[in-house]
Amino acid sequence: MSHPHAHEEALGRRLGLNRRQLLAATTGIAAAAAFASPARAASRGTLIPRGRRGIILYTVRDAISRDPLSTNVPSGFRRVLEALADIGYKQVEFAGYGQHANAEGGADLETVEGARLLRRWLDDNGLQAEGNHGFIPGSWPLSTADLDRFKRVVEIAGILGLGHVGTGNDPTGSAYKADWDVAAEKWNQLGEIARAAGIKLYTHNHDAAYAFLLDSGPLDAQGRPTRSSGIRKLEYFFGISDPALVHFEMDIFWAYVAQFKHKTYTAPDGSVQTDVFDPLATVQARAKRFPLFHAKDGTSNPATGNGYDMVPFGTGDIDYQRFFAELRSRGFHNPMYEQDNAPGADPAQSLEYAGLSYRNMAALRG
């Protein structure tokens, strides 16, 4: 007979937590509410509504891509979607439409027929697909082939009922103003195509997008600016992209990495200036441009280049209770749990982390 807490203890070992710490993490912010007065506890509402608790399928990519003939653990889109719905998730975000060839439907579901199959599985499990990290043309101007492929992306999104289509990358990896100008032209054009289909175009952002734009000062040998006016790259993009056409998905983990990494810039006069990035203030200033979040947690580790190590949601040091409590458009945003390192040697690990993270999302009160 197995020990009644064996499952919890195994999960705790992977997280580096003892059972008491794991229980505290699992109950999350709700544990604090238990010590509050009954009236105060009763007044603390759920910060992430049940219908908006989501997960990007990249977190469980090992399960989706696994051969279902090799294991009893849920594998392939159909079984993984069933497992996520059983956990309690109501939303998913795709990270492409590929799975193992032995899974029901075959390897490639990025077709009209494949999208209809996926839609049926979503509907069967009461799931709403909100977005996909898919194709965004890299070239400019857009070629006929690029436009045709993007229109196919939008068509598939419509079949799936997606509210949003986008990418897992920043609009450009460049530090230079001229390249962000070009990116805005491209994204505005793509946004027009998406809007015509009733879908929002979005870009997912990493810490580099919150670094400072090189837009002033002496030029280098290639004629490029070497100093900054102090505006961050994505802040500049907010201003030159059309708010009706271009939307954003803040990866909250990477936003806090940016707070750790991107604190100083060299001003036009050569002086070094300090400006600490505030992820929450960035969203508050333009809340309706952030329909999506990646709710990714991290434990503080200043010894690493990023300043944080990824962990399941609710077990790290990012203050998600404050972040969601202070949003001015509460209930508008769609937070998708993500953990890049959720897959592990245990084939069930990523789905176990998905369960733990869901419980912690549900426990947030404020």
Automatic annotation (TrEMBL):
Domain Xylose isomerase-like TIM barrel: residue ranges: 81-337
Keyword RNA-binding: no
Superkingdom, taxonomy of origin: Bacteria
Keyword Isomerase: yes
Gene Ontology molecular function: isomerase activity
Alphabetical list of Pfam families matching this protein: AP_endonuc_2
PANTHER family in the cross-refs: HYDROXYPYRUVATE ISOMERASE, INOSOSE DEHYDRATASE
Name of this protein: Sugar phosphate isomerase/epimerase
Organism name: Nonomuraea cypriaca
